[in-house]
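User: Reviewer 2 asked us to show a designed sequence for the structure in our supplementary figure. I'm pasting the structure tokens here. Could you produce the per-position amino acids so we can include them in the response letter?
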């Protein structure tokens, strides 16, 4: 008899798990609390859906923050090339953009969701929308606790040979992320590591950051000092509360709340070394010798950033460029390479892309995604204590762990 598999959650990992289990011959039922599938997938990548990253599998793990070794089996078993091939072969052409980020050619996340739903329908997967799982249906056996199904919020019982928890974490609660999976896993005896928002913007102390709201800086370096500091190049954005953008979101994955407030620095010219930058300033000041310092920087910075840099320069703004001393020029060059601002706190769950923390990977078999504490229970996606940086890596984790969990759930833990 085909195995009966219940998947809790119809997000990225849940849909991947359902398809994988059904392909192995299982009868699959998906329970989804929302009225439609993939609500978080729909808003990912600003509505474009950064499906994965077109990098080598070995390089993929350089972007994983927590759970690198745990994810080896899942990612090598279903790598970025396989994910891209799945969508391409099922009528959803993809394209690769800067940084290896992969998007649907249409730039519509709905096409990704539609492709997954078509596959689920073709495989006979049953989806129960507006159905919230309240608790796991467990029983004591000689081998220990076993998951035998799910009880819904209305008290309806769903029986199964295996259950896959793919409920996501706590990020973006408007998509239905309320931590149900974490609660159910905890009730089944699993350790839940502390959950905090990750890939989230920063609030800043300095008013000038907020005054620059809407200004985007490209090809800049964001860094902190110290052995375990953050240091990357890319794009950042000033907002009404502080800073955001890919660089900042990635920085948030490295910082502990207990280490805030903290000072961060922007290198506005990371492509120029100290000598080259000084020569560049010499040329600019020579060219604009009669101009006031405040009016000579248009070729160096965006217009809205100029008053800020003038204020941080310690050079009189009305001073003519010809009168700027070598010491002032070198001090200004150093400031360009090290613009300081203070991060006071991280933003909350409403703006977090992923959850840091979740079901401890020590309680999960990495080769099957099966629970070590409850037979017949499997995990997939963000509900686990695994996360990565921006660029399609977190969705790839969802696809990979979903596929592995689905394949093994369909065979009770051993794929033939």
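Assistant: Here is a per-position design you can include in the supplement:
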């Amino acid at each position: 008899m085909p195995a009966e598999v219940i998947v809790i959650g119809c997000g990225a990992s849940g849909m991947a798990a359902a398809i994988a289990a059904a392909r192995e011959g299982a009868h699959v039922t998906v329970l989804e609390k929302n009225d439609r599938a993939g609500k978080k997938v729909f808003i990912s990548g600003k509505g474009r859906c950064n499906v994965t990253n077109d990098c080598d599998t070995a390089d993929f793990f350089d972007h994983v923050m927590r759970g690198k070794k745990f994810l080896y089996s899942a990612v090598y078993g279903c790598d970025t090339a396989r994910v891209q091939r799945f969508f391409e072969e099922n009528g959803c052409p993809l394209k690769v953009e800067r940084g290896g980020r992969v998007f649907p050619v249409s730039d519509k996340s709905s096409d990704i969701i539609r492709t997954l739903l078509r596959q689920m329908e073709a495989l006979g997967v049953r989806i129960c929308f507006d159905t919230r799982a309240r608790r796991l249906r467990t029983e004591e056996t000689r081998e220990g606790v076993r998951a035998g199904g799910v009880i819904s919020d209305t008290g309806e019982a769903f029986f199964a040979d295996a259950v896959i928890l793919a409920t996501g974490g706590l990020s973006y609660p408007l998509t239905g992320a309320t931590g149900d999976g974490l609660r159910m896993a905890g009730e089944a005896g699993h350790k839940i590591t502390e959950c905090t928002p990750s890939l989230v913007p920063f609030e800043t102390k300095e008013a000038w950051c907020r005054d620059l709201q809407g200004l985007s800086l490209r090809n800049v370096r964001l860094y902190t000092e110290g052995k375990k500091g953050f240091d990357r190049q890319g794009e950042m954005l000033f907002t009404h509360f502080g800073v955001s953008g890919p660089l900042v979101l990635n920085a948030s994955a490295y910082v502990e709340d207990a280490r805030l407030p903290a000072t961060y620095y922007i290198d506005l010219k990371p492509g120029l070394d100290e000598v080259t930058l000084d020569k560049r300033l010499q040329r600019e000041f020579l060219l604009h010798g009669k101009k006031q310092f405040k009016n000579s920087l248009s070729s160096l910075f965006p217009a809205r950033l100029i008053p800020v840099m003038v204020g941080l320069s310690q050079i009189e703004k009305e001073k003519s460029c010809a009168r700027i001393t070598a010491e002032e020029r070198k001090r200004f060059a150093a400031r360009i390479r090290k613009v300081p601002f203070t991060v006071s706190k991280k933003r909350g769950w409403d703006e977090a892309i992923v959850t840091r923390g979740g079901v401890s990977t020590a309680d999960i078999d990495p080769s099957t995604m099966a629970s070590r504490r409850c037979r017949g229970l499997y995990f997939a996606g963000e509900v686990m204590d695994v996360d990565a940086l921006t660029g399609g890596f977190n969705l790839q984790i969802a696809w990979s762990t979903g596929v592995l969990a689905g394949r093994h759930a369909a065979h009770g833990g051993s794929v033939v």
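For the response letter, you might also mention the following. The chain has a mean pLDDT of 95. DSSP finds 13 helices and 23 strands in the chain.
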